[in-house]
Each structure stands twice: as structure tokens, then as C-alpha cells.
Amino acid sequence: MTGPLNVLVGGGTGFIGSVLCNALKTKGYGVTVISRMPGPQRISWNELLSKGLPKDTTAVVNLAGQNVMDISRRWTHGFKQNVYNSRINTTKSLAKLIDEASVKPSVFVTMSGVGAYKPDTSKEYDENSCIVEFDFFSKLCKDWERAAALKLESQSSCRIVTIRSGVVLGRTGGMIRQLYLPFYLGLGGPVGDGSQYMPWIHIDDLISLIIFAIQKPTVEGVLNGVAPYPCTNKDFSNAFGKALHRPAFIPLPSFVLNLLLNKERAVMMTEGQKVLPKKTIAAGFKYQYPDIERACKEIVSH
Ligand SMILES: NC(=O)c1ccc[n+]([C@@H]2O[C@H](COP(=O)([O-])OP(=O)(O)OC[C@H]3O[C@@H](n4cnc5c(N)ncnc54)[C@H](OP(=O)(O)O)[C@@H]3O)[C@@H](O)[C@H]2O)c1
């Protein structure tokens, strides 16, 4: 890329988005955040839709989405609709704006999740595995990925990269923020018997992967945003407990999560799939935290 490097980030105020924006600014990129809340260097979704992409936008990243694991929100039809619309509609709007822009950004990076792959105890999935709709999350992922589609003529100048992310592990948000206190108090442990896979990625690696997708012109299509060494839920709780120097033997029964979160949502923790980042590695991406022990040590070091 030549000239000014400006990235437009949907959901740039969130857990992943705020770390991404800081990393981009450190690297000299200009950053504009799309947010529902006003603020400096921000633009609202309505403003964006009426004015089009900001001038000189070289890359667009969408990280917007109603937090699925907000346990203060009941798993109602309305909440599910919000989870769905906040991802699909924002991604569709950005694809439309890219199609309409006279000067197109060179890349559009969008998110999806490993929920696209059906939980299985023996199968190994990579980016080439066939994905089918089998529950709410698999439909969400499929529609989310499809929402990023550009018109054919736009595709020749704007790459689309979709990151199917595992659980993002970082001190400032996501799953770790919810688990830190119970694990710190020695009350942590696996979910159920802990044998289910838990595809994961350290936040720093996910941010590097998004920037890698922005910078590398040969990268296109789906990349699995997961660490190269898969772990089970039990491996994670052992590693996290060990990093905190706390026992982590108290299991959280699946039925409790099913009752608290609703079975359809709890599936994200009670079941899992073995997902490998085959294409991500083949594209030349290098991980800073490839294994769960190193990732957990870094997270508790703050
Ligand atoms: N964290 C993970 O482990 C993980 C794993 C896989 C995939 N992902 C995906 O990655 C994306 C970012 O995750 P995150 O953990 O950073 O999420 P987050 O902290 O909850 O932030 C998401 C952002 O989305 C915006 N948002 C929330 N509800 C919205 C709505 N109804 N309409 C439009 N925008 C809305 C918010 O921005 P404003 O309030 O400023 O508008 C918020 O800052 C999400 O799409 C998530 O599904 C995350």
C-alpha cells in the first residue's frame, strides 16, 4: 500500500477493537472508529451510511457485535435477534459502502467464529472443511461470512479476509475477565468433564493476524484465528490455574451453565471442536503465543 494508511474499524471500542486500534496507531495508521456512541475520531453508523466511507480509507475491519456472553441479558428471541443483526447488518452495510465507493479500500477484514464447525470429539477442522448450518451459531457464522460479499467488480480491487476466531484470551475482556476472579480465588475448574476442545487465540496474536491480513496482499478468504496447539477446556483451566498458582479442580457442571445461560448459548462452553489454522500458517503467519501455557502466563503477568 502507498499513500496515507487509514483504517475504518466497526466496533473499535470493544475488547478486541480497542487493542487493535492502539496497535494500528502505534504502527502509524490513521484510525476511525464506527460506534453507536459519539467521541473523537469516531463516526456513527448513520453518519457513515449517509456520507459513505471516509476519504482515503485503505482498509475496513468489522468487529461490531452485541456481546453474546453478556450474562446480564436473557437468551430471548429479541436478544438473539440483536446478536444476529448487530453482526450481519453492520457487515452488510460496510460491504455496500465499499461497493459504492469510487476509490475502494484494498482490504475488508471481517470476523466469524469457530461456531461455524460442528462440535465433534474426533473430527479435525481446517479452513477447507465444509461448514453446514446445524444450530443458531452455525447459521450466524454462515450468514455473517456471506454478508461480507462484495459485488464482483469490487472484488477485483478489494480483498475480503474472514477470520473465524476461537475464544480470544486477554486480560482486558472476553472470557478471561469473567473467569479471572473465580480462578484467582481458587474456585475455578473445567466446564463439565473438560474433555471438549476449546479453540482459542491470545489477543496479541489475533491483533497481529488482523494486521497481517491488512498488510499481506496475497491473503484472501477464510483464516482460522486459533492457536496452532489446540487444547481442551480442562487443559485451559489447568494452565490458567497454574499460571495463577491456584488449584483449578472445581468443575462447573454443564447443567448449571445450561440453566444460567440457556442450553443453546451454553454450547459455546459445554461443547467444542478441534480447529487447526492450516491456511493461516501456510500464509506465513507467526504466532507469539502458540500454546496455552505461554498464553496464560502472559495474561496473568499484568
Ligand atoms: N471475544 C471473543 O472471544 C470473540 C471470539 C470470536 C469472535 N468474536 C467476535 O469479534 C467481534 C468483537 O468481539 P469483542 O470481544 O471485542 O466484543 P465487544 O467487546 O463486545 O465489542 C463489540 C463492539 O460491538 C459494538 N456493538 C455492540 N452491540 C452492537 C449493536 N447492537 N450494534 C452495533 N454495534 C454493536 C460495540 O461498539 P459501540 O458500543 O461503540 O457501538 C462494541 O464495542 C464480535 O463480533 C465477536 O462476536 C469475539
H and E string: EHEEHEHEEHHEEHEHEHHHEHH
Tally of structural domains: 1
Question: In one word, what is the shape?
Answer: globular
The CATH class label is: Alpha Beta
CATH architecture: 3-Layer(aba) Sandwich
Describe the main β-sheet briefly: 7 strands, parallel
The overall pLDDT, averaged over residues, is 96
Rg, Cα atoms, Å? 19 Å
Range of helix content: 40-55%
What would the CATH topology be? Rossmann fold
Low-confidence stretches: none
CATH homologous superfamily placement:
NAD(P)-binding Rossmann-like Domain
Which cofactors or ions or other ligands sit in this model? Answer: NADP nicotinamide-adenine-dinucleotide phosphate
Classify the secondary structure makeup into a structural class: alpha/beta
Count of discrete alpha- or pi-helical segments spanning 4 or more residues: 12
Side by side, the strands of the main sheet go 3-2-1-4-5-7-10
Q: What is the rounded distance between the termini?
A: 35 Å
Strand content: 15-25%
Number of strands: 11
Describe the structure.
This protein is 41% helix and 16% strand. The protein is an alpha/beta fold and 302 residues long. The chain has a single domain (6-300), classed as Rossmann fold, CATH 3.40.50.720. A 7-stranded parallel β-sheet has the order 3-2-1-4-5-7-10, with helices on both faces. Strands 6-11 form a two-stranded parallel sheet. The mean pLDDT is 96. NADP nicotinamide-adenine-dinucleotide phosphate (NAP) binds next to helix 1, helix 3, strand 5 and strand 8.
